[in-house]
Amino acid sequence: MRALIFAIIFIFSTAPFSLSSVISDIDKSNIELSTRFDGTSILVFGALSPENDSTSLLIEIIGPSTSVNIRKKVQIWGIWVNKKIARFKDIPSFYQISISNPEHPVLIEIENQKLKSLFYDFLEANSTPEDVNGVEQYYLELTRLKKKLGKLSVFEEQVNIIDKKLFSHKVNLPKKIHPGIYKIKMTLIDQQGIELSKSEQSVKVSKVGVQEFLSHNSKNNPVFYGLFSVIIALFLGFSAAQLFRWLYR
Predict the structure, then answer these.
(1) Which residue(s) pair with 177 in the sheet?
(2) Which residues contact 169 (CB under 8 A, 6 or more apart)?
């Protein structure tokens, strides 16, 4: 399989290119989420024609949109409760960005610009923060939690470039991921971070089996889903009771 992949890359690399161009492919375009799903990886590969040796390749993986609530413990009538104080609306459920040159002169600027456009700009605060750093704190907490869950990775891995023409990069997806379309973007940039050429692929992640059945009915048939859940709970409870009765007979 690996030999076949690099054979395809070689064919790509021998095709005529314009200056600063990139073409790409992936080893899988569909991922099924079953009850046994324990994470997976996607191999991104292709060929590029850099304008000069200072050109770098960015690879981004952007998951389907989701919304995240930021909550804070507050005291209401003497009782501590979690109150929603902010909301990040329509942000990527998964995001990873890597580069071929970890010593790129404007790497920090690229990181700040990417995260701001994908996360920071989509913050909706329910009320004015108590201090000017409140919004920044919400954003930092969001990125911290996403990194902890393996759903946000910023320049932690390096894109592998072979003979300045071929590239390969493995994307690791965690166990808990959202279904939907995952976009994989390849971008050639110069020393100033200016985009020179782009290529894009997509991967469809979908639920199958029991997960698909439960997910579909929870959204489209809430009454049936509720009754089904109650029946299953009663059945499991009754089965557990009978099992313990048999064991301690």
Answers:
(1) none
(2) 43, 44, 45, 59, 98, 157, 159, 160
Note whether 182 and 205 are within 8 A (CB). yes
- Distance between alpha carbon 196 and the CA centroid of its chain, in Å? 25
Q: Which helix (H) or strand (E) holds 155?
A: strand 152-158
Q: Work out the pLDDT band at 30, boundaries 50, 70, 90.
A: very high
Lay out the sheet containing 21-26: strands in order across: 21-26, 40-49, 166-173, 160-162
Mean per-residue pLDDT, 112-141? 78
pLDDT, averaged across the chain: 80
The helix/strand/coil state of 189 is: strand
Burial class of 44 by CB neighbour count within 10 A (0 to 12, 13 to 18, 19+): buried
Q: Report CA dihedral (232, 238, 242, 243) to the nearest 10 degrees.
A: 40
- Determine the angle formed by the axes of helices 222-247 and 210-220, rounding to 10 degrees: 130
